[in-house]
Amino acid sequence: MKRQKRTTIYDIAQRLNLAASSVSRALSDSPKVNAATKALVLKTALEMNYQQNAMASNLRKGNNPTIGVVVPRINQNFFSNIIAGLEEVTYKKGYNLIICQSNELHAREVDCVNALINQHVSCIIISIAAETGDHNHLQQVLDHHIRLIQFDRVVEELDTFKVINDNERASFEAVTHLIEQGYKRIALLEGPQDINIFRQRKEGYLAALKNNGFPILEELMCENAWTKELGAVATVQLLNLPEPPDAIFASTSDFSALGVLEVATDKGISVPDALGICGYSNEPFTEITSPSITTVDQYSVSMGKTIANLFFQEMEVFEHSVEPKIVSIKPKLIVRKSTQRKISS
Amino acid sequence: MKRQKRTTIYDIAQRLNLAASSVSRALSDSPKVNAATKALVLKTALEMNYQQNAMASNLRKGNNPTIGVVVPRINQNFFSNIIAGLEEVTYKKGYNLIICQSNELHAREVDCVNALINQHVSCIIISIAAETGDHNHLQQVLDHHIRLIQFDRVVEELDTFKVINDNERASFEAVTHLIEQGYKRIALLEGPQDINIFRQRKEGYLAALKNNGFPILEELMCENAWTKELGAVATVQLLNLPEPPDAIFASTSDFSALGVLEVATDKGISVPDALGICGYSNEPFTEITSPSITTVDQYSVSMGKTIANLFFQEMEVFEHSVEPKIVSIKPKLIVRKSTQRKISS
DNA sequence: TTTTAGTATGCAATCGATTGCCTGATTATT
DNA sequence: AATAATCAGGCAATCGATTGCATACTAAAA
């Protein structure tokens, strides 16, 4: 059985003894076509079950109202919220969203980006994979005159639009809060330092310590404590130190913080009294654990909207070559029980 | 500043003094072109930074290796997992994914579906919105010879491929488990009954009661207890009954179950001893609450993969008009502390 | 009545890649 | 040496919609 052909403007034109151009104009409500004809065409189109072929239209018009999104993982709270936020805005503008996930792999990210370039999307919105490599693929995007917005995890040296969280500031506030609660030895679980956001969070941590005259202790900083499991491992190590920390800032994620909490609970260490815990991301579960976990909310859905708006307001048309802008969103510290000591400073 | 043109096969052809057709063939590695020429074209294409125009190619070839996905909410654990699973498979096949969310609204769902028809996608994968209406839009999909797969929340009377969970079975097992744990008055928090999955879960509940000779008590069934807040409200009502339930099966979601748990904790009702709680979906947080919540895992990521594979194996080519198939996945009851009584039956 | 303006519509090129068919050149076959 | 076979490449139509330009027709102005 052959694939039956779909009705085109030519079919409509033939049926009505019109030229295809008139049908096209009628359908796009051009003023150059008579009202009666317009109505007739519309009616016939409906009858014949016509649906425009977007590929043909976009090809001819030389633009594709589609935005490509590349994220490390689609099913991660932060990213799926970003996507939801993006969709909310792009939907209203009649744009489509093509979603790809890099699975944190550089090669796959490159693949996805190339596929999106092929698609001639109007814009690519990307948060780079943990496995970083060169960024020729991003340069390629620019070379093909496709707008590029980086968010959250960005390649800083690349001169593009960026929407980021003020990680350093948030981190600074979180650590300051811990200090205010009277914690004296504050450990840091940090992420891969070749990713900007983790560098920034470390900066914030260091700045807060300095600001309060606290010493910087190498043994209290654990690299790569990224997942719940790694967070737990790091915690065990930290607690075995001759002088263990009295607070742990899991700057990588709430999952990591959860690992910390589980180890503490296992060992019968009282949180927040003997150990303060602060996570990052405001995952839904942080509200539910006992005690609930202090964390940093990144306004992810609204960040998605911001990104989309940035495209529509600044980049969709580019009359003049716009100067890439960096939008920084200040995340919010959500203080919960895991850091609220009864004894106060 | 005008948008600079991207290099096309014509540009390459001109540079090499070849016909565009030869360039096209060379790029698609056709045997009709000399190896030396092929190499030359490839090299030149690279030099000139050529990227194929997928719109033109797809238009000519009359197919678009893209799959459209419509879900109620992108940032809901179940759906984002489905999408991740889909992407995993479609990526390998070189297909793109266009994602839309209906926000549980019928009108918006219709909009999304139409946009996808315009795009001439190869397949539409959909889970319908809570706000149901007619399903002309789905019929439209079929009329335009676009493959359609419904999953999870499906319109049963529409003869399409479907991938569903065996909700009734899972629900039956959950309630049976409660009975085995010695609970005697088991309440049900149910979802909108015009959505198939919620009907099925109720069926399973009823079947399990009957199967064990338990009476069906209207006052123990609460409609529309869908969110955490509604779950809490329903729980308060249930607990105020002259004969309150000793177990609550929140068949709508884990969020609902969480609402139940919070009310119980507030009122100092011991879970699982005085009140058993079972949720649905295996949201990550169910493992973390105290006590952890018994729930039903839907294998969402793997379900996504199943859906995509269904398309590639059965529908991508349709030699013969294939008979729509229904794939039913048996979810798994995850027994946790919220239903494990020390006193056993 | 002729000119002008304006309206509605048609013609044909175009977007970029693909592909059936044809041709010229080279090699193989008898 | 003549014919057939093979290879490499070119020509031109095609996918479906859009759009600049041309044209036929009507109505208004001179």
Strand content of chain A: 5-15%
Q: Oligomer, anyone? A: homodimer
Rg for CA atoms of chain A: 26 Å
CATH topology of the largest domain in chain A: Rossmann fold
General description of the model:
Two copies of one chain form a homodimer. With 345 residues, the first copy, chain A, is of the alpha/beta class. Chain A folds into three domains: 9-52, Orthogonal Bundle (434 Repressor (Amino-terminal Domain)), CATH 1.10.260; 61-165 and 300-329, Response regulator (Rossmann fold, 3-Layer(aba) Sandwich); 167-298 and 333-339, Rossmann fold (3-Layer(aba) Sandwich). Helix content of chain A is 42%, strand content 14%. Chain A has helices at 9-16, 20-27, 35-47, 54-61, 77-92, 106-118, 136-143, 167-180, 196-211, 228-239, 254-267, 300-315; strands spanning 66-71, 96-101, 123-126, 147-151, 161-165, 186-189, 221-222, 247-250, 276-278, 295-297, 326-329, 332-334. In chain A, the strands form three sheets. In chain A, strands 2-1-3-4-5-11 form a six-stranded parallel sheet, with helices on both faces. In chain A, strands 7-6-8-9 form a four-stranded parallel sheet. In chain A, helix 2 (20-27) crosses helix 3 (35-47), helix 6 (106-118) packs parallel to helix 7 and helix 8 (167-180) runs parallel beside helix 9 (196-211). The termini of chain A are far apart. In chain A, 48% of the residues are buried. At the A-B interface, helix 4, helix 5, strand 2 and helix 6 of A face helix 4, helix 5, strand 2 and helix 6 of B. The structure holds a DNA duplex (30 and 30 nucleotides).
